[in-house]
Amino acid sequence: MMKKFMICTSLKCKNNFELKNKIKKAFDFGSDYVEIRLDYFKEIDVENFKRIVKPFINKCILTYRLNGYFNKKLKEKKNIIKELIDLKPAYIDIEEEYYKKMLDLIDYIKNENIQLIISWHDFNGTPSINKLRNILEKIRENGDLYKIVTTAKSINDNYKILSLYDYLNSNEKNKLIAFCMGEKGLISRILCVFAGAPFTYASLFNQKTAPGQLSIIEMRKIYEIFKKF
Predict the structure, then answer these.
(1) Would you tell me how many other CB atoms lie within 10 Å of the CB of residue 101?
(2) Could you tell me the sign of the dihedral formed by the alpha carbons of 145, 122, 77, 46, in that order?
(3) Confidence check: pLDDT of 98 > 70
(4) Is the pLDDT assigned to residue 21 strictly greater than 90?
(5) Is the predicted pLDDT of residue 84 greater than 80, yes or no?
(6) b/e 159-176 (16+ beta carbons within 10 angstroms → b)
(7) Whole-structure pTM value
(8) How many CB atoms lie within 10 A of CB 63?
(9) What's 65's DSSP letter?
(10) pLDDT tens digits for range 45-56
(11) For residue 31, which of 169, 229, 218, 227 has the smallest C-alpha distance?
C-alpha cells in the first residue's frame, strides 16, 4: 500500500482574524501541517494568536523570516517569538542566512525540545550540485530538518535538487526538504516526497507564499492519482 504523502500548507495572514479563517480551511482541505508565516503579520496579538493556534499546535510550523511586514526591532521580534515558542509547535523554521543573529533564540528553541528547520533559499536560480552539497553540509549541522529551496530555470535544475536525497543515507533522507520553486520546478515540488522529504509545501487557494506553489486541493488530487498506479 502506497504511503500517504504529507503536505504542509503555507499561510500568509496579516492578522489573527485571517489566521482563524485560514487555518481551519487548510486542515479541512487535507493539510497535514500548516506553516504560519509570522513575517506577514503586521502586528501579533500574542494571547489571541495562542488561542487560535493551540488546537492545531502539534501540526504547526512557525516560520520566521527576518525581513517582512512584522515591523518591530529585532529584540522585540525575538521576545514575541519566544512567547509563541511556549506553545510548543511541531517545528520552528529559521533561515540559515540569519542563523548567527538568532543564536539566543535558537538556544531557547533547543532547550524547549522543539524541532528546528534550518532553511536556505535561492530566488534567482539553482547552484551546481557541488555547491548544493556544501550548503546541505552546512545546515545539517544545526537543524533537525534541512530545507533547501532553489529556483528552477530549466528542467535539469529539478534533477540537481533531487540528487541531494541520494547524497544522504537512508536514515537521513527524511530530514531533507529540497525542491525547486517556479513553474519549471513543479516536478520536484511534487516528487520530493517520493525521494524522502517528510512533506512538501502548498498554498491555500491561490494565496501563494512562493513561486510555483500549487494549492492544497491541487496537490492532494495529484497524490490521489498516484495512489491508483
Answers:
(1) 14
(2) negative
(3) yes
(4) yes
(5) yes
(6) ebbbebbeebeeeebbbb
(7) 0.94
(8) 24
(9) -
(10) 999 999 999 999
(11) 218
Q: Kindly give the interhelix angle for 186-195 and 156-167, rounded to the nearest 10 degrees.
A: 20
The residues that are catalytic are 121, 147
Q: What is the pLDDT of residues 164-186, one digit of tens each?
A: 999 999 999 999 999 999 999 99
Strands (E), 122-204: 145-151, 176-181, 200-203
- Show the beta-strand stretches assigned E in the chain: 7-12, 33-37, 60-64, 91-95, 115-121, 145-151, 176-181, 200-203
CA–CA separation, 136 vs 127, rounded Å? 12
Rounded distance, CA 76 to CA 42, Å? 13
Residue 104's Cβ-count burial label (10 Å; 0-12, 13-18, 19+) is exposed
E strand or H helix that includes residue 138 = helix 129-139
With cell 520530493, the residue in question is 192
CA separation for the pair 6, 147 (Å, rounded): 15
The rounded distance, in Å, linking the Cα atoms of 212 and 157 is 14
- CB environment 109-124: b (16+ within 10 A), e (fewer): beeeebbebbbbbbee
Find where cell 551546481 sits. 128
In angstroms, the CA 152 to CA 127 distance is 10
